[in-house]
Write a structure and sequence with these properties.
elongated; mainly alpha; 64% helix
C-alpha cells in the first residue's frame, strides 16, 4: 500500500508536468531520470529521493522544498523557513552584513513566537524593544553584545542615509 504523501506527490507532479506541457518522456530527458521510474512516482508506487525531486523541480521550474514537503521529507514549517532564508540570501540588492542582520531579526521573531527550541539561550535579547522598532539595534548587536548595541546600529545605518 502506497503512503498518502507519495500518492499526493505523484498527483501533484503529474499536474505540474501537464501545466508545463511536458510529456513524461520529455521530463525524463530533462531530469536524467528514467521514464518508467517517473511514471511509478506519478502513480504513487515509488517514493523518490531528495536528489530525484530536486532534478524534477528544476526541470518543472518549481520549488524543490514544496516537493520535499509533499514527499514527507520536509516539514511544512521547515520548508517555509528555508524558503524565507533562501530569498534573503539570494537578494542581490542587499550586502552580506544586511543579509545577516535580516536573518538575525527573523530568528529573533521565530524565537519570540516559539518556533525555535532553546531554553532561554538568548536571555539578553529583550522581546519588547524588538517589537517596538529596535530591530537594527538588536539584530546588529546580536545576542552576544548587550552593551553599546544602539550605537553600533546607528553607525551601521548612517551609510544608507
Amino acid at each position: 500500500m502506497a503512503s498518502l504523501n507519495v500518492g499526493n506527490l505523484g498527483e501533484y507532479l503529474r499536474e505540474q508536468r501537464r501545466a508545463a506541457q511536458l510529456s513524461l518522456r520529455q521530463l525524463a530527458d530533462a531530469t536524467g531520470v528514467s521514464n518508467p521510474y517517473l511514471s511509478q512516482i506519478e502513480r504513487g508506487l515509488r517514493k523518490p529521493s531528495a536528489d530525484v525531486l530536486q532534478q524534477v523541480a528544476k526541470a518543472l521550474r518549481i520549488s524543490a522544498e514544496t516537493l520535499y514537503v509533499r514527499a514527507g521529507i520536509l516539514d511544512e514549517r521547515e520548508r517555509e523557513e528555508l524558503e524565507t532564508r533562501a530569498v534573503i540570501l539570494a537578494d542581490p540588492s542587499i550586502n552580506e552584513r544586511q543579509k545577516n542582520v535580516l536573518l538575525q531579526i527573523y530568528d529573533s521573531f521565530r524565537r519570540e513566537n516559539g518556533f525555535v527550541p532553546g531554553p532561554g539561550a538568548d536571555g539578553k535579547a529583550d522581546v519588547g524593544p524588538v517589537a517596538d522598532g529596535g530591530l537594527a539595534a538588536d539584530a546588529d548587536a546580536g545576542p552576544r553584545n548587550g552593551a553599546g548595541a544602539g550605537a553600533d546600529a546607528t553607525e551601521d545605518q548612517d551609510p544608507h542615509s
